[in-house]
Amino acid sequence: MAVQSLQRDYKVIENLKLSKVYLPMFDKLLDDISQECYNSKRLLEKDKIRVVRWEKVDENFSDLIIATTGEDQVFTYVNMALKTQVEKLLISHQNK
Question: Which pLDDT score, from 0 to 100, does residue 22 have?
Fold first, then answer.
């Protein structure tokens, strides 16, 4: 979700007059978070866990379907909470 958010914002930043200042920061942030996602997926795959899909239930909730060695698990998340977590993640990476 953070990667998708950054990719959407990237297109907007490209049109700014100060894009030369912001684009390198966006590139680094996007690379760092993409690498973290990749590493997390690899760790989950070692335990035979994989994300099947995100499914938007309505404007307030989303379901995350996870495949495990036993059966699929469904986790319901509040969209606003997810957005807040993504913002916190981006800010923490930016401050590093």
Answer: 83
